Known about the structure:
Helix content: 10-25%
Oligomer: single chain
Shape: globular
Amino acid sequence: MSENRRFPPPWTVHPMPAGFRVADANGAWLAYCYGDTTGYRSTGSVMMLPDQARAMAEMIASMPDLMHGVGSAEFPPGTQGPFFVEDRKTWFSVTDASGIRLAAVYHSDPEAGDLTPDEARRIAVGIARLPDWVGRPQ
C-alpha cells in the first residue's frame, strides 16, 4: 500500500452498534466515533454520547471540503478545543481539552481498516486540526 495514498471524497458516515465510522469513496474505514448513553470513562477518556458521536463523525466526513475552505460544520455540543492526538500503539486517539474521546483511527487491524501507521497518523492529525479549519468549539 502506498504511503502517499489519498482518501477520495465523498467521505460518508456509517452507523455501527457502538457509534459511527467514516469511510472514503473507496470504502476505506478512516475513523471511528464511539457513543454511549452513559458517557462512561474508558481507557482514560470520556466517551461521547450517541448524538455527539454522530455529529463528530459528520464533521470528520466533511474534512475534505473543510480542508479546502469549502462547506461548514458544527462541533458536537460539549466539546472543547484544542484537540490532541495520542499514539495508542495500534491506533490513534483524538481527544478534546476536557478528555472526551472524539475519534479513534486504527492501523494494523484488518477488521478496522487497512490503514498504515502513517496514514492513520495523518488522518488523526487532520481531525485534531478541525478547530483550525472551522473555528474553535464553544
